[in-house]
Design goal:
The longest helix has 11 residues. The protein has a five-stranded mixed β-sheet with strand order 4-1-3-2-5, with helices on one face. By secondary structure, it is of the alpha+beta class.
Length: 89
Amino acid sequence: MRRVRVIVSGQVQGVFFRTSCARAAGQREVAGWIRNRDDGSVEAVFEGSPAAVDALVAWCRSGPRGAVVTEVESFDEAPTGERGFHITG
């Protein structure tokens, strides 16, 4: 089990980034959450198999159509047993 927190910067709000990410997480059976931040970035936590989490972090580097990703910061964290994937804030 792997858990990664990502902060995605660029034009990532108003382009269905959160919804598209939630769909991508569901397809990969990754749990966690995603939210918009006040600074215009998006923050997410992904928890699941290492390969699935890595694939979702890679997905964040381009995001959905319409997104312009300029930076993806990622931080490994200890797994907490997340269930499901949720869009918050």
